[in-house]
Write a structure and sequence with these properties.
Blueprint: H1 2-10, E1 13-16, E2 19-22, E3 27-29, H2 40-55, E4 61-63
């Protein structure tokens, strides 16, 4: 699903006068672990994956993996 969202956003173009701006997006994905009591660690892992995607070249979906 995240890849479909990324691909859809990439197709968006915004025109401003003679200029056309294309959009790109990076998405970080993480899975809620069975023993997690709060959502903060899930958000932290998804955020880590997001920034890994940006470091790798942007416009991508990255899933969090235990390093």
């Amino acid at each position: 699903m995240a890849e479909r969202i990324r691909a859809s956003v990439t197709r968006i173009e915004v025109s401003a006068g003679a200029e056309t701006v294309r959009t790109k997006v990076s998405i970080g994905v993480a899975t809620l672990l069975p023993d997690e009591a709060t959502i903060e660690s899930l958000i932290h892992r998804a955020d880590d994956a997001l920034y890994a995607g940006k470091r790798e070249g942007r416009d991508r979906v990255v899933a969090f993996t235990d390093r």
